[in-house]
Design brief:
Blueprint lengths: L27 H17 L2 H7 L6 E3 L9 E6 L11 E13 L3 E4 L18 E2 L1 E7 L5 E7 H14 L21 E3 L1
Parallel strand pairs: 4-8
Antiparallel strand pairs: 1-2, 2-3, 3-6, 4-5, 6-7
Bound molecules: 2,3-dichloro-N-{2-[formyl(hydroxy)amino]ethyl}benzamide and nickel (II) ion.
The site of 2,3-dichloro-N-{2-[formyl(hydroxy)amino]ethyl}benzamide (5LI) has 16 residues, from strand 1 and helix 3.
């Protein structure tokens, strides 16, 4: 089971490597890893389990955060509305690739956090507002989807991990809250 002890922290060189594509058809090992990554996200978002296991909450996770330099990410974005418990996006993605993106940029008003970063790093993380993404799903099927707003931001945070990029690499050092005209701030 993945716990906070499994997650490597900044300073570990694996976080700065470009991860390798996984072979398709998927190996049992890679399928099992994806399942464990998704289980971690579920546990981290469950108040009882998170407290029991001492987990920080997360809506995404990338294999390099487990010191495994493979292009595998898991995302589980709850709808945030108790009436409708269905997540807005829940998937394990193998070899995810951004095929195209909007001109429109966006950032989260609250900034971003990372389980591999044991500190707050304030500031806007400007990303693409909309992306067209291809990936291989847990069943080994090639998928092509379009994402926007929060879901697109989360997936970009995870794909950054596959390329050795940390969220704070995008923050303007002079003025962390500087914004170019037209950037959408997502609250
Ligand atoms: O790489 C994944 N993590 O580090 C998990 C913890 N961070 C989050 O869940 C998180 C929090 C805020 C904004 C974004 Cl975009 C993300 Cl992804
Ligand atoms: Ni992260």
């Amino acid at each position: 089971m993945i716990t906070m002890d499994t997650i490597i922290r900044e300073g570990n060189p694996t976080l700065r490597e470009v991860a390798k594509e996984v072979s398709v058809p998927l190996s049992d090992e890679d399928i099992k890893l994806g399942e464990e990554m998704m289980e971690f996200l579920h546990n981290s978002q469950d108040p009882v389990k998170a407290e029991e296991l001492g987990l920080r909450g997360g809506v995404g996770l990338a294999a390099p955060q487990l010191d495994i330099s493979k292009r595998i990410i898991a995302v589980h974005v709850p709808s945030g509305d108790l009436e409708n418990p269905e997540p807005t996006l829940s998937a394990v993605m193998y070899n995810p690739k951004i095929l195209s993106h909007s001109v429109q940029d966006a950032c989260l008003g609250e900034g971003e956090g990372c389980l591999s970063v044991d500190r707050e790093v304030p500031g806007y993380v400007v990303r693409h507002n909309k992306i067209t993404l291809s990936y291989v799903d847990a069943a080994g099927v090639k998928q092509k989807i379009r994402l926007k707003n929060y879901e697109a931001i989360v997936v970009q945070h995870e794909i950054d991990h596959l390329n050795g990029v940390m969220f704070y690499d995008h923050i303007n050092q002079e003025n962390p809250y500087a914004l170019k005209d037209g950037v959408l701030v997502i609250e």
